[in-house]
């Protein structure tokens, strides 16, 4: 098959014709080959005249959160056939948090590229994207934004609540507690094994409002998943129904020609941010939403998150910030009920994958449990948790989850105790000779996108053991790393530019004074510009972690946290040039 083939553009832009028609209806050599090879798989002449629906199945035994996807795909296919389409299942890379080293964030962009190219390079008229674990849904939304063929997200759903001794357990908020108690000698090996078996007792992703639940909620809030999809527990029969409906609906989207860029507008992204802030969602969502927005050609400054956060009451009572888990959220009405409560703060005219607007989708929505989903009048907190800090220590911004900060640290001046890298931190943090007190500011360098690499979730710098013994539970901590959705404390993260590219963070030395003022949104290193310039002369970039392969590509092309950690070459050209000229 050496003959030159149609370019991707000529297939994708073949007017109103379905993309699959260009493959299957031509009477030339390639039409013959496409029909012949496809019919050999059992598809009939009649099938080849129907819209082809790609089903992106990210099942993998290396990704627990997607272990049940083959079953869900059966229901999606049923829906596609019923609606008059032809399902064609395909795989992509699948990334699950527990196994991937050094961090799944390294592979998010790889998954986005894989998914985009699979969508563009095949006779697919529309696609169902099955995602679940933390980085998978953002990767798929980034791909959908770039490929811009009709697409719908089906998330795999959260696990059922863990149960032990009458207690409800959450992964992985309670994983920390059990292992700490075991380390302290308070529970035995046997008791630890019982807890291991009880906490993850079904298919599905983590069932607290961590990154997976946050991104599933975002897929719904942004309009790319059917209403109600996010919260249905993975093993609940209603997720099968949702899968079938999703299969039917993608055929409808193809018929109506509704594409991701018709749905994921600037207003839809604001809706997603509002839902995230009202839900106490993960800070990781900020990086992912910036990346998605930029794929659509739109800048998304950190200040937008700060503005929406300060206007949005926190009303969803879910762990780690609240009391309940996804199972109770589902029973309380799920994302549609939350959005109904938030309706005055949402852009109601945004189009969604139902073919209707947000407002139209919410007509029937209602809260069934007012303790899980609070009202705007009686919120858990009057605003969302995220504040954006600026100053010479983070000229391109840093984040702090202000609701998790101890009151006395919201305005603080302290002297830096510097760790040059994650390895240095691990080596010295519990050293009895470390010069540190409760007013110190712990600074971790080289844990950012290029530095660590791929910005691992290590921004919750541990309190030094000798201070823990004195009863100290919170300190100001600064890094260019990320944090998991379950972290708490005065943690300043995502500092940009990161240390590994020569951000001011790289120049901090032990004993320097640092000032944090959350209400003024300020983060300052009290060192003169002249002294910083002197230090910069002797600063040397750390050696890259990779000298070949995907790791090297990541190192060379990844953007900073405030630009979503996407690869520069994956952005639309105009936006890329604009952003690079601002550097
Ligand atoms: Fe997949 Fe937590 S490990 S969502
Ligand atoms: Mg996580």
Automatic annotation (TrEMBL):
Domain (Dihydroxy-acid/6-phosphogluconate dehydratase C-terminal) ranges: 371-565
Swiss-Prot/TrEMBL keywords: 2Fe-2S, Amino-acid biosynthesis, Branched-chain amino acid biosynthesis, Iron, Iron-sulfur, Lyase, Metal-binding
Keyword Ribosomal protein: no
TM region(s), chain numbering: none
Any matching Pfam family: ILVD_EDD_N
InterPro entries recorded: Dihydro-acid_dehy_C, DiOHA_6PGluconate_deHydtase_CS, ILV_EDD_C, ILV_EDD_N, IlvD/EDD_N, Sugar_Degrad_Dehydratases
Classification via PROSITE patterns: ILVD_EDD_1
Every Dihydroxy-acid/6-phosphogluconate dehydratase N-terminal domain range: 50-361
Domain of life: Bacteria
Classification via Gene3D superfamilies: IlvD/EDD C-terminal domain-like
Family under the similarity heading: Belongs to the IlvD/Edd family.
Name of the protein described by the UniProt record: Dihydroxy-acid dehydratase
């Amino acid at each position: 098959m050496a003959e030159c083939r149609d370019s991707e553009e000529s297939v994708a832009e073949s007017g109103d014709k379905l993309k699959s028609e260009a493959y299957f209806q031509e009477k030339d050599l390639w039409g013959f080959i496409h029909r012949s090879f496809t019919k050999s798989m059992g598809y009939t002449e009649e099938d080849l005249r129907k819209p082809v629906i790609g089903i992106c199945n990210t099942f993998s035994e290396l990704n627990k959160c997607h272990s049940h996807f083959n079953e869900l795909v059966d229901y999606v296919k049923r829906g596609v056939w019923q609606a008059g389409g032809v399902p064609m299942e395909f795989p992509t890379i699948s990334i699950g948090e527990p196994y991937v080293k050094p961090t799944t964030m390294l592979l998010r962009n790889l998954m986005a590229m894989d998914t985009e190219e699979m969508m563009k390079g095949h006779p697919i008229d529309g696609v169902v994207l099955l995602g679940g674990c933390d980085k998978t849904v953002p990767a798929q939304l980034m791909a959908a934004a770039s490929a811009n063929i009709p697409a719908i997200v089906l998330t795999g759903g959260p696990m059922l609540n863990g149960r032990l001794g009458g207690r409800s357990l959450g992964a992985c908020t309670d994983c920390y507690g059990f292992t700490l108690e075991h380390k302290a000698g308070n529970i035995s090996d046997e008791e630890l094994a019982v807890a291991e078996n009880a906490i993850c007792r079904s298919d599905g992703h983590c069932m607290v409002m961590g990154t997976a639940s946050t991104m599933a909620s975002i897929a719904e809030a942004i309009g790319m998943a059917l209403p109600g999809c996010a919260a249905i527990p993975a093993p609940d029969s209603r997720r099968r129904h949702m899968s079938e409906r999703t299969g039917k609906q993608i055929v409808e989207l193809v018929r109506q020609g509704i594409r991701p860029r018709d749905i994921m507008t600037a207003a839809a992204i604001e809706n997603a941010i509002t839902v995230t802030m009202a839900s106490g969602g993960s800070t990781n969502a900020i990086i992912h939403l910036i990346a998605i927005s930029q794929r659509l050609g739109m800048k998304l400054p950190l200040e937008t998150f700060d503005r929406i956060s300060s206007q949005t009451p926190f009303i969803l009572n879910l762990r780690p910030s609240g009391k309940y888990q996804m199972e109770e959220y589902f029973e309380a009405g799920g994302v549609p009920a939350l959005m109904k409560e938030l309706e005055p703060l949402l852009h109601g005219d945004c189009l969604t994958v139902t073919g209707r607007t947000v407002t139209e989708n919410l007509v029937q929505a209602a809260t069934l449990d007012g303790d899980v989903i609070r009202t705007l009048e009686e919120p858990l907190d009057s605003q969302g948790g995220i504040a954006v800090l600026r100053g010479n220590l983070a000229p391109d911004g840093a984040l702090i989850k202000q609701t998790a900060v101890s009151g006395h640290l919201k305005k603080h001046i302290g002297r830096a105790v510097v760790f040059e890298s994650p390895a240095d931190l691990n080596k010295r943090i519990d050293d009895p000779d470390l010069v540190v007190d409760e007013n110190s500011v712990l600074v971790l360098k080289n844990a950012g996108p290029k530095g660590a690499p791929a910005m691992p979730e290590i921004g919750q710098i541990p309190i030094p053991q000798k201070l823990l013994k004195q009863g100290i539970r919170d300190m100001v901590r600064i890094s260019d790393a990320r944090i998991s959705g379950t972290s708490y404390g005065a943690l300043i993260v995502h500092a940009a530019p990161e240390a590994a590219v020569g951000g001011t963070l790289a120049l901090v030395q032990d004993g320097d004074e640092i000032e944090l003022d959350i209400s003024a949104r300020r983060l300052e290193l009290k060192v003169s510009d002249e002294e910083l310039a002197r230090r910069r002369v002797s600063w040397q970039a750390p050696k890259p972690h990779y000298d070949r392969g995907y790791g090297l590509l990541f190192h060379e092309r990844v953007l900073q946290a405030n630009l979503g950690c996407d690869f520069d070459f994956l952005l639309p050209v105009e936006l890329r040039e604009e952003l690079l000229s601002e550097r």
